[in-house]
Amino acid sequence: MRGWICCWVQVRKNSTTLFVGIIFAALLILGVNFHTSSELTPRQEILDVHSPQRNMSETVKSFRSCQPKRNVMFLKTHKTASSTILNLLYRFGEKHGLTFALPTHYQFGYPILFSSRRVKGFLQRDVPHYNIMCNHMRFNRPEVQKVMPADTFYFSILRNPVALAESSYSYYKSVAPSFKRSVNFDAFIANPWRYYLPQVHNNHYARNLLWFDFGFNHNANFSLQVAQAGVEEIQQSFHLILLAEYFDQSMVLLRDALCWSLDDIVTFRLNFRSNDTRRRLSAKQEERLKQWNAMDWYLYQSFNKTFWQRVERFGKSRMDQEVAILQARQKELMDLCLLQGGKPAEASQILDRGVRPFQFGQAKILGYNLNLNLSLSNKERCLRMIMPELQYKDLLDSKQFPRAEGVPKQALAKEGIRPQSNVHLGASGSVVNKRDHVIQKIDLSKQKLRRSP
């Protein structure tokens, strides 16, 4: 009797397995899409490297049918690893033939609140629809909604305001009057009000920069009620807020939310500075910066909490597994694409002028050199992964508006942009535009510090 029961259980087990296998095969035959899209161009991944990690990643996907999102708005905040995210959005859009809401120059009139008229071709209706918006702006939801489709996915990224303030001082010391007046960062931290004047233009870089980028008044005295209202407004406008300190986990969450492939969200770190320009802060200095940037600190704490709640829902073990896969694929591509396995290089050491990052302020912005023995197809893909944002924007602009003339010098002068080089092709075939190295002097003299209704 016991043997008959065991036999019956084994038959039931085998039958169940066979039934599940038949159902799964049927779904594949019918074209049910598990984390891919039949509407988009089939994924064309770099093929020179055999990737067990990439194959493994296919098994980690949740068995839910989803379509990759193609309408995306990214609020590119300052000094938050946002240039790296911009690159992956540029690559995805270019790969799938999507249209970009591009600024006439490099920013959407920043630091003035965003206006739809700042989008190239929008008023003239030169572009029937836009899929991706991701360049610097000061967020203004009603105006953004005029440009982007109703089903657009909105996301942004934050960084600990203490680290952000240190980075901002290094990068914007020659721009922000508050920073220019101080001898060094230590002096500024010790007594910021000695150097800070609320009404002086460009001082938004010196206080509550994140709060400002989201469209709020960075000079407002801290109030819990005001801070909570701001957070609630952001939660209503954005589907996902990422954290720069947990970039890999952020990319996993972004991939899950957008239903994109692994290679779509693999990135090389861009627009980052060398360690010799970074400075360590004391606990007392960190506390002073939290108080000085109280709105930013509240914003960061709030979305740090929701970030980890989202990770909890995603599953910690699943997160750990997908982060490991992401990091393995990144290393694989760095070994394939980059000299010395991706060792960063100073701008003067980068052989191809077309991929030298823009240098600004006290910071030394690093970049990469491509391997010399790449196939043509891999060279093209690897080049896109290291292309700085100014050069990549110019490339997309030239493809989307092929008949457009270059920006007149008078227009550049009017916006305070000084061109420093001419158009040519870099050694890797990259585009170097006459506006690739610019200094944008922002005029806030006419800006209202309080948010427009």
What does this structure look like?
One of its GO terms (molecular function) is galactosylceramide sulfotransferase activity. Mean pLDDT is 79; it is low at 1-9, 16-63, 408-427 and 431-453. A four-stranded parallel β-sheet has the order 2-1-3-4. The protein has a domain at 58-343: Rossmann fold (3-Layer(aba) Sandwich). The protein is globular. It is mainly alpha-helical and 453 residues long. The protein is 44% helix and 6% strand.
Strand order of the largest sheet: 2-1-3-4
The 3D shape can be described as globular
β-strand percent reads 5-15%
Cα Rg = 24 Å
**CATH top level of the domain at 58-343?**
Alpha Beta
Do you know the CATH topology of the domain at 58-343? Rossmann fold
CATH architecture label of the domain at 58-343 = 3-Layer(aba) Sandwich
Percent helix, as a range, is 40-55%
Give average pLDDT, whole number. Answer: 79
User: What structural class do you assign from the helix and strand content?
Assistant: mainly alpha
| Low-pLDDT segments, ≥5 res | 1-9, 16-63, 408-427, 431-453
Q: What does the main sheet amount to?
A: 4 strands, parallel
Distance between the termini: 80 Å
SS field, number of helical segments? 17
Number of beta-strand segments: 9
What series of H and E elements makes up the topology? HHEHEHEHHHHHEHHEHHHEEHHHEE
Task: Please sum up the structure shown.
The protein has helices at 2-30, 52-60, 82-95, 141-147, 161-172, 177-181, 185-190, 209-213, 224-237, 247-258, 262-265, 283-292, 294-314, 316-337, 376-386, 389-400, 409-414; strands at 72-75, 132-133, 153-158, 240-243, 272-273, 345-346, 365-367, 424-425, 431-432. The chain has 453 residues and is mainly α. The protein has a domain at 58-343: Rossmann fold (3-Layer(aba) Sandwich).
